[in-house]
Amino acid sequence: MKNTLIFFILAYIPLAVNATPFSWPQLTPKQIGSKTYVIEHGPHDENKKLSRGFHNNPGFVITRDGVVVIDTGSSVEIGKMILRKIEKLTDKPVTHIFNTHFHGDHWLANQALLEKYPSARTIAHPKLIALLKAGQDKFWIDVFTKRLGDDFKGTKAVIPAEAAASRDYKIGGMTFTVKLFDQAHTATDLMVFVKEDAVLFTGDIVNNEHFSFMGHGNFKGAYEATQWALAQKPKYVVVGHGRSGTQDLIPAFADIYKTLRDTVIKYYDQGLQDYEIKPKLIAALSKYKHWSGFESQVGRYASLLVAEVEAEQFQ
Ligand SMILES: [Zn+2]
To answer: How many CB atoms are closer than 10 A to CB 156?
Structure first.
């Protein structure tokens, strides 16, 4: 009886302190290599009440010398959650953070990690650093303030400090092959291949059952980036959004970029306008219509692709 009472008191303390505690209890880091883990997303962003802005896939590698994090998340609270999950597995400090691109859901949680580990190195595409320093940081703060409301409270932009290069980073006995892409999902993308574990982090260039916003992207470049990804022969792939899995996720998504471009080029050559091409694209991708973002993104892809194809003709 006494034990039961203590259990109930302990179990309800967090609720008593904070009526709406931040917790993503369903998440446990999944081990996907000898030293590599992914914290897979919660419920998708359409349901913000449940996801509280967490719908991406932060990863981390526990090296001999410390923890290397690949992508964080949308808010300082998500950053704290990532730290709690890491600290359950190791007491080593976070020494490095790689951010895969400049969209706020991949770097705004850096703040929590840097507050705890101020000497951690934050590494990203040089264009990401330039854009955020030129004012895009405020743009993303505004987007996520509107999107997440109270769940975003206290979040500040902590811009990555160090420009990445396409090369191997040797950290704590592990090799992180970084590849920059200047035109793919955005103009600020990088992928990280954890060589010894053969785990590839693709950022939003590859997703699973999800269509991303491509307004900062280039479909041809994104397709080419998938071919680099495949050439690494990863055993395991952590995508930007959606469940991670085997390397089959890459050709599946490459096929989407190819279908999008081939369809638009075909009808553009026949003189169709983007609003006439839109239903053709929706038909060509109909097998993906249950994916998140299909309704909101695929229509936009028509006009983005017409602009891309037109620009190529003047090159
Ligand atoms: Zn994203």
So the answer is: 12
